[in-house]
Specification:
The protein is of the alpha+beta class. Helices cover 49% and strands 16% of the residues. The protein is built from 13 helices and 12 strands. The two termini are 34 Å apart.
Length: 429
């Protein structure tokens, strides 16, 4: 312990003796580490598994049942109500759900305040929550798909009810009264795989969840990609026509169940083709969560390339710092060899250099974190589409410290070895 304290004291003395030199090395490494850390943070959030443990069991159902004469879309993730309903009612999958994105303005039904809050809304089925891993803080999902019972998210519950148990309370949505039967716990899903299209992969989870049958009956508009070969005036008419706006997801627990479901949807599409419902070859596809994210190119390719470039930039920074440290150790050879002459071993001189390198690495790590946070804040201001992922998660802070220490050691290890290997007599004679 005494030797460690002595090495730290020597390190501080060296820093004070040549502050500009060490500041230059620290800045060189910190810029490279901070830039890489900021980009790696965003890349890790983009590419992370949004539902670990189930990502290989949940599948987006894509079907080629477009009724138009020319199908340039191929297998589509938006399907008709009739197809989605057949999937949900078939009972082939372990769980099946269908949903579409909509939007409403909400307020407490008993409030004297007429302020209404803009609320992202998901029209779906009761099975949605168990499949997607959404946990309830209060209450549960609805039992009747045709009831005016709804589930609200954590943030909306705080906004309207101060975070208290609001089960049994009522909301006014689009001029009608709905009963709250469930309140979700804080739910963060990145990427938002159940709506990874239209650039929404990093949106927040929805504020309100309502039975899809009720949303369709009440003509709640579709706020997502939709397509129709038939004209309609109200959404309830889409139950019988060729309107494509619903997404279907299924949970398949093993390969046998997946094969059974694939056989079911292929047979369903084949029957529709034989009835003249569509003219195209049967081409139904199942994408698990990570395949679905890859299919929608959720990971920004430009960011991936830029992260690779910043990795190369860090290597250049390490090389430059290595050159500076080598020149510094060559200039200080007399002092280190004088210590060896009065009794210090090569190992002790080497350890002192390692301690100096570690302290430099820790300092670089702290500066790098500041630079990374500042760069992410700049990204949020300049690039709106990157704002949801421009944050520094805790595990990246740990990685940042590791990269800083490694970079510092790499930049000093060669000069240290060279200094320790120098013959003592050649310096002192």
């Amino acid at each position: 312990m005494e030797m460690f304290t002595y090495y730290v004291q020597l390190c501080i003395r060296n820093f004070k003796r040549t502050p500009l030199f060490f500041a230059l090395i620290m800045l060189t490494l910190s810029i490279g580490i901070g830039t890489l850390l900021a980009n790696l943070s965003m890349l890790s959030l983009m590419s992370q598994d949004p539902i670990p443990g189930k990502s290989d069991q949940i599948f987006s159902v894509n079907m080629n049942t477009y009724a138009g004469a020319n199908n340039t879309f191929g297998s589509m993730h938006t399907i008709r109500y009739s197809d989605a309903k057949a999937i949900v009612d078939a009972g082939v999958a372990h769980r099946a759900t269908m949903h579409y994105a909509t939007h409403v303005y909400s307020r407490r039904a008993d409030s004297q305040d007429l302020t209404r809050y803009s609320s992202a809304t998901r029209a779906t089925t009761a099975s949605f929550f168990a499949m997607m891993g959404a946990e309830f803080a209060f209450g549960e999902t609805w039992k009747n798909e045709h009831s005016n019972n709804i589930v609200i998210g954590h943030e909306l519950n705080i906004k309207l009810f101060g975070g208290e148990n609001s089960v049994g309370e009522k909301l006014e949505l689009q001029g009608q009264i709905y009963n709250i039967v469930g309140v979700l716990k804080p739910w963060i899903m990145k990427p938002l795989f159940y709506h990874a299209t239209e650039g929404r992969a990093f949106n927040k989870t929805d504020d309100i969840f309502v039975p899809i049958e009720v949303a369709i009956d009440n003509n709640w508009a579709v706020h997502a990609r939709s397509l129709s070969t038939d004209d309609y005036t109200t959404l309830s008419e889409t139950r019988q026509i060729n309107a494509y706006y619903i997404q279907a997801f299924v949970e398949l627990v093993d390969a046998q169940q997946k094969l059974a479901f694939q056989t079911f949807i292929d047979g369903h599409a084949q029957q529709l083709q034989e009835k003249g419902n569509h003219r195209h070859e049967v081409d139904n596809r199942l994408y698990d969560v990570n395949d679905w994210l890859e299919q929608n190119e959720v990971v920004n390719k430009d960011l991936l390339a830029f992260t690779f470039a910043t990795g190369l930039f860090l290597l250049v920074c390490i090389f430059n710092a290595n050159s500076l440290m080598l020149s510094r150790y060559q200039a200080g050879q007399f002092e280190s060899n004088l210590r060896r002459a009065v009794g210090a071993s090569r190992k002790q001189v080497f350890y002192q250099g390692v301690i100096e390198s570690v302290i430099l690495g820790i300092t670089c790590a702290l500066v790098s974190l500041v630079l990374a946070i500042s760069l992410l804040a700049l990204y949020r201001q300049l690039f709106e589409d990157l704002a949801p992922v421009a944050e520094l998660p805790l595990h990246m802070v740990v990685i940042g410290f590791g990269v800083a220490l490694t970079s510092s050691l790499l930049s000093t290890i060669y000069p240290l070895v060279q200094g320790a290997r120098t013959p003592l007599a050649s310096i002192l004679k």
